[in-house]
Design brief:
Elements: H1 15-21, H2 26-46, E1 53-57, H3 67-81, E2 85-88, H4 94-105, E3 109-113, E4 128-131, H5 135-144, E5 146-151, H6 156-170, E6 179-182, H7 184-199, E7 214-216, H8 219-229
Parallel strand pairs: 1-2, 1-5, 2-3, 3-4, 5-6, 6-7
Amino acid sequence: MSLRKTKTVNKPHDEDKKFLQGTRNYMADFIRSIRIGMEFHKAVFKLRNTSNCVTFFGSARFDENHEWYKLAYDTAYKLGKEGYSIMTGGGPGIMEAANRGAHDAGAPSIGCSILLPFEEEENPYTSLDVHFHYFFVRKMMLMKYSRTFVMFPGGFGTMDELYEAATLMQTGKIDDFPMIFMGKEYWQHFNTFAKNAFLENNTISPEDMHYLKYVTDNADEAVDIIRTNSTADTTTKEN
C-alpha cells in the first residue's frame, strides 16, 4: 500500500438540514432548488468522462488494520488493474481503502464527498473529487455512473445506499447489474433478516432475493463476478 498523504478540505456544510427542516418560505426554497440544480450540473460536468465504474459502499469506521479495509483495498486494486474506475463516497474507512487500491493500481479513483461534523476529512487517495452539499444529489451520482455496486459492511448510510440500489433495480429505474456483498459473516445476518421479515410477510417477491445472491470474502471471486456480469459501458467521452 502507498504512504498516506494529506489533503486540504473545506468545512462541513448543513445544506440538507436547511432544506429539509427549514421554514416553509417559498422564495428561500426556490433559491435553494436552483442551488440543487447547480450541484447536479457541476457533478454531471465533472463526471462526464467516467467509464467502467465500480462503486464501493461501506462504513467509514474501519481503519487500515481491519480485515474489511484490507479486502476493500485488494478488491479495488485488482479491479483497477482490470481497467475499471473506482468510485466511493470519498471518506475514510472502506471508502479510503477502495480509493487507495485504485490509486495504487494507477486507475481512476473518484471521491464523491460530503463533509459531516462527526466524521474525519475526506481521504487523500482520489484522482477526481466531487464535493456535495446535498446527500440525495451525492447518492444519485454514486448510482448513476456505476456498472456494479460493491457493498461492504456498514451502518445506516450503507443500508440506505443498498436499499436505494435494490429499489431502483426492482422498479426498473435502472437495469439490473450485480451487487457484490463482501464479508460473508456480516451479510448472512442481513440475508436472514430479508427472508424472515420481507419475504415471509410478502413485502418482496421471491425473485427479489436474487439481488442478494453474490456474497463473498474473496477479491478474485468478486472481480470475476463483475467481469462476467456487469453491463456494457455506453459512456461517450467528451472534452
